[in-house]
Amino acid sequence: MNRRSFLKKSGQVGMAMSLPLPISGFNFNSSSKLQIGIVADVHQDVIHDGYARLRFFMDDMKKRQPDFIIQMGDFALPKLQNQPFLDVWNEFEGPAYHILGNHDMRDSGFTREQTMAWWGMKERYYSFDQGDFHFIVLDGNDKNPKPWSGYDRYIGEEQKEWLKDDLKKTQKPTVVFVHQSLEAEHGIANGEEIRDILEKSKTASKQLKVIACLCGHHHTDYVKEINGIPYIQINSMSYKWVGGKYKRERFAPHVENAFPWVKSTCPYKDPLYTLLTLDAYRGELHLEGSSTSFIAPTPKEIGMPNADEMSPTITERNLTFDN
């Protein structure tokens, strides 16, 4: 790539070989770094210990004090029994942002509007500036063109026009957040169309405005670069879904009865989350790594296909973006 460096080493750590100084294609005001606490796919209504997992994350964020935190969808439904869980999230004293996941609406008869109101989410898609960066949050749950069955995973015309307009208005390096991926199978159905919008948005010096796109939804860990933009999968905080065919009971009967879907997962022993550090001046994006183990039996032990590709890990990544 001659205009954008995207360097990733497979395994636990991705190392950037060089750092551009500075990014002349962007406008920025300082050399300070920006830190973001990120959690994806907690699934409070599936996992039996979602409260404890989020508590662990929040206690760490209180100590480390990132500039903001964001949850990437499939968080918690607006049930009365989930209020203590949401209260933990609301303890953060800085900005705390939400992304709508497919399980945050329709499940248990709740609507998108009910979930948004409970979270305190004013718009289903939106953008904001923080420091030297611009951030876009998309809602990948628009209605799919018919015929369609299952959960909707689409970005409709109104949102597409808003996205184009929003990108035109900024000259800052931009990070896009969306629950479902724009590049993976079973991600957003018109992901290629949305990627094209991102790729066509450039500064006056022909620099790609979008420096990364982060998503959850797939409960996996990888990064894929497409036409200069890295698409980063953030693993679930809680588990890998394996479905009814491979379900196993792991916990006490009262836990299994209270959380009947947990047997269809391979839970992670410890909560996974990450801290994203952005440095506009040096052109660097660093994603903190995190790793745990499965609560037995593991995907391999229950005979899951492609079990070797399932990992309770968020890989450390150090990516660069330059002219």
Automatic annotation (TrEMBL):
Transmembrane segments: none annotated. InterPro entries: Calcineurin-like_PHP, Metallo-depent_PP-like, STPP_CPPED1. Residues 35-220 form the Calcineurin-like phosphoesterase domain. It comes from the Bacteria. Pfam families: Metallophos (PF00149). This is Metallophosphoesterase.
